[in-house]
Amino acid sequence: MTAILLLSCSKSNEVPLQVTEEKTASIQTWRYACGPACDAAAWVLVLTDGSSFEAANLPEPFHSQNQDVLVRFNKTGKRNTGYSGTGLELVTILGIRKK
């Protein structure tokens, strides 16, 4: 019985995802170096407060430069670095619509 109580009370090492409320953002394409003689681009959400996040799962209908949207997302706490991204924090989009 004690073992069950100890297991049920143990804390997880996982950091919970932070869900944000719906935010106004502009969708932009940011270029980054991906190695020798290589350039790549990522879709970025630029919020009205100036903060920016890389949106890896941006739906296809929103792949449009400078499109204003209302978006809900989870912050992942992770970043694409090196040759794989912008270095911005990655977010997972939960909902998005045109403004």
TrEMBL record:
Which domain of life does the UniProt lineage start with?
A: Bacteria
Q: What is this protein called?
A: Uncharacterized protein
Which organism is the protein's source? Flavihumibacter stibioxidans
